[in-house]
Specification:
The chain is mainly α. 85% of the residues lie in helices and 0% in strands. It has one domain. The protein is built from five helices and no strands. It starts with a helix and ends with a helix.
Length: 168
């Protein structure tokens, strides 16, 4: 990868990590607290929603950091080393943890009794959170599978690189 492009990518990733941290610390707790005051269903799930979303953002931050390291490795021949596999595995693991967090949200919504929350707790909020949980889990597993396929391609490229280095 071009060194300039890799450096620009790393700066963009650093800004994205800072934005995630800002949302984790400032925006998310306040927004969920405000929403919990307005909606009894969100109030009943406040702790779960806050925990899952903060941990989900941690997964995003881990993926961003691993991508930044891979961009650094791609500036030279480091991307063709065994070290790159560790960072690809970190990305796959973070994606699977994110999918598991989505399933935790789905289970949390399923076990929260809606009837006790009054007429404001409509079925659409329930359905929306179900769909969010399913979509998050499906997207996390799907992207993890895609990255796993790309990992296989990287393995093949490393093998070819090593064979070529022996010949030369």
């Amino acid at each position: 990868m071009n060194k300039v492009i890799a450096s620009v990518l790393q700066v963009g990733i650093a800004l994205a990590v800072l934005a995630c941290l800002f949302f984790q610390i400032v925006v998310l707790p306040q927004a969920l607290a405000d929403e919990a005051r307005l909606d009894p269903f969100v109030a009943a799930l406040h702790g779960l929603l806050l925990t899952v979303t903060i941990l989900g953002l941690v997964c995003v931050e881990v993926i961003l950091v691993a991508t930044a390291v891979l961009a650094q490795l791609s500036k030279g021949e480091g991307i063709f080393s065994r070290r790159a596999f560790v960072w690809v595995d970190v990305i796959i693991g973070a994606l699977l943890v994110g999918a598991a967090l989505s399933l935790v949200l789905l289970v949390g919504v399923a076990v929260t009794p809606v009837a006790d929350l009054g007429p404001e707790a409509g079925d659409m909020v329930d359905v929306g959170l179900y769909l969010l949980g399913l979509a998050g889990a499906g997207a996390g597993v799907g992207i993890a599978l895609l990255v796993f396929v790309l990992r296989s391609l990287l393995r093949r490229a490393v093998t070819l690189h090593d064979e070529l280095a022996e010949v030369v």
